[in-house]
Amino acid sequence: MKTLYENPWFRVVQDGRYHWIVEDNAVNGAAVLAQIGDDFLMLRVKRRPHSGVQLEIPRGYGNPGESSRACARRELEEETGYRISEEQLSLLGRLKPNSAILASAVDIYLAHIDADTQPGPRDNEAQEVERISLPRLRQLLADGAIEDSFTLAALAYLFNRRDQATAP
After folding, report:
1. Contact 79, 120 (CB under 8 A)
2. What is the rounded distance in angstroms from the CA atom of residue 123 to the CA atom of residue 71?
3. Would the pTM of this model clear 0.70, i.e. be above it?
4. Mind spelling out the 3-state secondary structure of 45-83?
5. What's the pLDDT tens digit per position in 20-49?
6. Chain-centre distance of CA 77, in angstroms?
7. Residue 50 reports pLDDT greater than 90
8. Which residues pair with 71 in a beta bridge?
9. CA 30, CA 47: separation in Å to the nearest integer?
10. Hey, which end of the chain has fewer CB within 10 Å, N or C?
11. Is 97 helix (H, G, I), strand (E, B) or coil?
12. Average pLDDT, stretch 146-168?
């Protein structure tokens, strides 16, 4: 196996005729579906590889020595301004965003934020932080307005968890 290209975020490796991307800091990265009261926090983010603005949940790489849970807290605060404790997070599952070309796997969390919590300052990665009701979120999903794999996986885990909780 040899490295064909690398930068601070990823390496492109080759093993025979196969190529893939290794994101070393994704090992402890996280994505966070945040629920505040009856609503969910979504980001409107411009991603360079895609046209338009994407509707996404907060996510990011972990720092060296940081757990994915700590990463989830940090990313949520950086991108939305909401500060939470680790006890307010529950693991929903794990996502391999593109198992054919990406070697990364990221933990997905559900954050429970008290309805009266006010956000602090946030970074400028997202153009907007939006509170969306569950019925509206389901409609956006049905309309194909959510295409981000992290967000789709988080919603699948959430809906499955809720379905299991109400099953006879």
Report:
1. no
2. 15
3. yes
4. EECCCCCCEEEECCEECCCCCCCHHHHHHHHHHHHHCCC
5. 999 887 778 999 999 999 999 999 999 888
6. 13
7. no
8. none
9. 18
10. C
11. coil
12. 88
